[in-house]
C-alpha cells in the first residue's frame, strides 16, 4: 500500500473493523469519549521492534546484530538509552509535539510463532491456548452505536527472514511517511484531536540476526499510539537483551489487551478486564 492509498483509505474512515475483539467483560460508556475516529494499522508479517525502537545504550544489541544493528549516529534519539529507526524521521514532529506514545514489550504469555495463529490471538484477544471466533470490536457494539468511525489498514512485507536491513528500512519509511501525512491532514481538518491511531503486528522478531541477514519470528514488540488526545512518551519496559525467551524473542512486559483496553476506554467504554495504559489525556 502506498502513501496515496493509505491516505485515501484512512481519510474515508469507513467502518471496516472486520473481525476483532472484546477486551471488556461489561460495556459501560463515559459521557464524553476522547475520540470519535480510530485507525488500526497492521504491520503484517511480524515487525522487527528491536530495529524500530532501538536500545542504543545496550552493548548486547550490537553483539546480537553485527550486520543489522543501526549505528548510534543514525538513530533518532528519543532519550539517552533509546533511538528510533532513521526511516521514521517523519514521526519526530509527532514525538516532539507529544502526541506519539511508544509502548515497548507488548505481547502475550506463551507466544505462538505461527503467523496465522498469532494473528488469530490478537484478533480475538484470547489467551494462547484459547480459541475464539468473535472479534474485539465486533462485540463492542457501543463503539459503533456512538458513531466511532473505525478504519483498518494493513501494510504488508514485515516478515523479514532475509536481507532485512534495506527491506525493513523501506517498510518503515513507508509507515513513517503515511502516518505523518495522515497526521498533517487531520490536523489541517481539525480532526486530529479526536482521532486515535494504533499499530499492531502478530509478533516481533528474534533478537539475534540469522545467517541470511534477517531475523526469525519472535515474541514481544513495540507499538505506536498516536493522536491529539495521546500523552506522548515511552511506555512499557525497554527490551531486556539479557533475558530473552527460550526461542530468542524479547520478553513480554505489557499484555496486548491493555492496548485494546486503552483504545476502548478512549472510545467511551470502561469497566475493562485489562487496565488501560495511562497514555490518553483526559
TrEMBL record:
Pfam families linked to this entry: DUF1501
InterPro entries assigned to the protein according to its UniProt record, in alphabetical order: DUF1501
Name of this chain's protein: Twin-arginine translocation pathway signal sequence domain-containing protein
Organism from which the protein derives: Caballeronia temeraria
Amino acid at each position: 500500500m502506498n502513501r496515496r492509498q493509505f491516505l485515501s483509505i484512512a481519510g474515508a474512515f469507513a467502518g471496516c473493523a472486520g473481525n476483532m475483539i472484546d477486551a471488556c467483560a461489561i460495556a459501560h460508556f463515559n459521557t464524553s469519549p476522547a475520540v470519535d475516529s480510530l485507525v488500526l494499522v497492521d504491520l503484517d508479517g511480524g515487525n522487527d521492534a528491536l530495529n524500530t525502537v532501538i536500545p542504543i545504550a545496550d552493548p548486547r544489541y550490537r553483539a546480537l546484530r553485527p550486520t543489522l544493528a543501526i549505528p548510534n549516529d543514525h538513530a533518532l534519539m528519543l532519550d539517552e538509552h533509546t533511538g528510533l529507526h532513521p526511516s521514521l524521521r517523519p514521526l519526530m514532529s509527532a514525538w516532539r509535539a507529544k502526541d506519539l506514545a511508544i509502548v515497548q514489550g507488548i505481547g502475550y504469555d506463551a507466544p505462538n510463532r505461527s503467523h496465522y495463529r498469532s494473528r488469530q490471538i490478537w484478533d480475538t484477544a484470547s489467551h494462547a491456548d484459547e480459541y475464539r471466533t468473535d472479534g474485539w470490536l465486533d462485540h463492542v457494539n457501543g463503539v459503533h452505536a456512538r458513531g466511532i468511525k473505525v478504519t483498518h489498514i494493513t501494510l504488508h512485507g514485515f516478515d523479514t527472514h532475509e536481507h532485512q536491513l534495506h527491506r525493513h528500512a523501506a517498510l518503515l519509511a513507508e509507515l513513517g511517511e503515511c502516518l505523518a501525512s495522515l497526521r498533517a491532514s487531520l490536523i489541517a481538518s481539525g480532526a486530529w484531536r479526536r482521532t486515535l491511531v494504533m499499530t499492531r503486528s502478530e509478533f516481533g522478531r528474534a533478537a539475534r540476526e540469522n545467517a541470511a541477514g534477517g531475523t526469525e519470528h519472535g515474541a514481544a514488540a513495540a507499538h505506536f499510539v498516536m493522536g491529539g488526545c495521546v500523552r506522548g512518551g515511552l511506555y512499557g519496559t525497554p527490551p531486556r537483551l539479557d533475558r530473552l525467551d527460550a526461542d530468542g524473542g524479547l520478553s513480554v512486559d505489557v499484555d496486548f489487551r491493555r492496548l485494546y483496553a486503552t483504545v476502548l476506554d478512549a472510545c467511551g467504554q470502561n469497566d475493562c478486564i485489562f487496565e488501560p495504559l495511562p497514555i490518553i489525556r483526559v
